[in-house]
Write a structure and sequence with these properties.
By secondary structure, the protein is mainly α. The protein contains two helices and no strands.
């Protein structure tokens, strides 16, 4: 009775020959193609990894450059702000100085004008006092008075006739 679990020696021999033929054909033609493709795939993966490393290095360099440029820009910005602050402070100081000089000049001009007006007013008053004195003296001399009381009344009367300015 043939057993299903134990092979027949003839069958085993032909299976072994078929296996060896297939193995030799695969070893001669199939495995080199398969290993070549695997090798190409490995080489492609290695190149891709190498490219990825280079890209990462370039990216790191670009990031470092970017950080450097950003830092430089911030330093330049702070320098420009400092210069602008100094310039504005200088302009403010110059403006204050010019305003003070202008105010001093205006005050001095006003003092001169006030002094000139005061002197003019004093001359006018002196002139009016002199005119009044002459008018009073002329009227007193033109009229002969005999009594002091009459003279006093007459002086009061003359003074009341003179217009007040």
């Amino acid at each position: 009775m043939p057993s299903f679990l134990t092979p027949d020696p003839g069958l085993l021999f032909w299976m072994l020959i078929a296996f060896l033929v297939v193995f030799i054909l695969l070893a001669k033609y199939g495995f080199p193609i398969i290993t070549g493709m695997v090798e190409k795939r490995k080489q492609f993966i290695d190149e891709s990894l190498s490219s990825a490393r280079e890209a990462n290095e370039k990216l790191a360099n670009i990031k470092a450059e970017c950080q450097s440029l950003l830092k430089e820009a911030q330093e330049r910005q702070s320098q420009i702000l400092k210069e602008a602050t100094q310039t504005s402070n200088q302009i403010i100081a110059e403006s204050k100085e010019k305003a003070q000089e202008e105010a001093a000049r205006i005050i001095e001009d006003a003092r001169r004008q006030i002094q000139a007006e005061t002197e003019k007013a004093q001359r006018d008053i002196r002139s009016q006092v002199a005119d009044l004195s002459l008018q009073i003296a002329g009227k007193i001399l033109s009229r002969e008075m005999q009594k002091e009381e009459e003279q006093d009344r007459w002086i009061d009367q003359v003074l009341s006739q003179i217009p007040n300015s």
